[in-house]
Amino acid sequence: xPATYRIRFRLASPLATxxxxxxxxxxxxxxxxxxHGEASLGQWLCxxxxxxxxxxxxxxxxxxxxxLLKPARVRAMTLEQIQVHKKLRKxxxxxxxxFEELRNGMSEEALQQRLAxxxxxxxxxxxxxxxxxxxxxxxxxRVRTPHNRIHRITGRxxxxxxxxxxxxxxxxxxxxYRDVYVQTSLPQAKLEELFRQVxxxxxxxxxxxxxxxFDGVEFTPETGGxxxxxxxxxxxxxxxxxxxxxxxxxxxxxxxxxxxxxxYAASASPFKFPLLLAKPGSTFEAGPGPFGExxxxxHPAMPAVRHNAWHLFVTYREAD
Amino acid sequence: MKLxxxxxxTGTIETVTGLHIGxxxxxxxxxxxxxxxxxxxxxxEPYIPGSSLKGKVRSLLEWALHKVDPDGQVWGFNKxxxxxxxxxxxxxxxxxxxxxxxxGGPTRVSxxxxxxTKACREMIHERGLPFTEEKTEVVIDRIQGKxxxxxxxxxxxxxxxxxxxxxxxxxxxxxxxxGGELDMKCLNRLIEGLKLLEKDALGGSGSRGYGKVxxxxxxxxxxxIQEKFDSISAIDPQKPGEIVKAGAGVEx
Lengths: 320, 252
Description:
The structure holds 2 protein chains of 2 kinds. In chain A, 27% of the residues lie in helices and 26% in strands. Chain A is an alpha+beta fold. Chain B has a 5-stranded antiparallel β-sheet. Chain B has 5 helices and 9 strands, in the order βααβαβββαββαββ. By secondary structure, chain B is an alpha+beta fold.
């Protein structure tokens, strides 16, 4: 019987690769391979079609994706209301508590009203805060950093191809914390071992420059009810593929340009085929799962390479 | 290919002279700094990027081990270069490569950004000092003996001498059929690379005296190697010294 865990950690360095579900899974696979060998990893991968490993994206702590709901009915609004409405529609994440509060009667209208109230509360709270308290809240920002290669003979940057840029996510304060949800029948100890290995070495690209490290990894079995119950609709927390059992789906697509990692990263052809995946927040009818799939044939030369495109989901009821 | 152990090298980097690791500049401000140093985008504190440290140590080891590409490229970067016994190449094992003949496994080293030590940050706050200094330089017209008119004075930002940064390097020893023996040699080679850096310079303008650094309190998995590190006098390209021994961590 699979169990669900919330894994909370603190980013201990900038992040060069977004915490997408499929990439997180790939990093865990490499941790497995280095710790237990290729044969053991192969066995685990073969068992996944019967016993899927569902993993969410890395979300800011305490947040969930905003569900894609039926558009709100058009009503007459003042200019000011339209501006507020537009601002609220841009929020890609909602607090978990708001989702839990509305899950039995979710609608775009109800969600917007709740978010407008929340925004007001947050504004007042911020006004009462001391500068020190505001500093503790922290912030996050995508930063473009220049790098160069040094010509070994001249000791200077080569005129052609020497200068390059990387884009990284830098965060401070409470914005450093992330939640990942996992549903698996792996023992908790095994899951902890894999996550701690990834945390120590670094996640995603540029780990050899210290990118993608995290610490303070905490595992909490999810018994709070978020994943319990079977309400009529489901919201995905992952980047996953669309499968025929996802009826009445509302989704936004994203092209995923994957690369091989670990020991394969330096191979002659590290690029996978582009994948079209539904983003977290996609909603669909919560029939018998699992939703999404373990995709194979994702690399032109390596048939063993797969991509975890399953959806870890939470259910809710949409108001009429 | 199996992971044997991840070693953690820790310590402190002390700047002996001013250090300039450039940040590039998106905008031009009147009276602004010509060459700023790289800083944390939120706190504004200077730091030593892991990429700079890794790149410099790699470059120094390439020279020490007679592995400088005649084209000036990074060793192993030029995919057409023939490298004998490529999978046992120490540089490529330690620092990684995209060479098409490579099958020696993943990059072994991971160097973190080095941020100011807590003590150093507190000392600067207590004394109300700035984190960086400005150094003005000019080009002298060789005939007239005064500053050249078309260039004029320029200001360079530096981290002053005496600042301390936390160092953390991870090194994974992978068994590629030898029980991890070759990677243990690579770990020792990397430590020798740090010694080379002490003798050379980090960041820009090394030939003008910038970027001299010193490593202090060096330890591998918590066990001090400072004494052994200080005693490294020369690099033998054939065989690295034995500062860290497999399993036992630091040589007794």
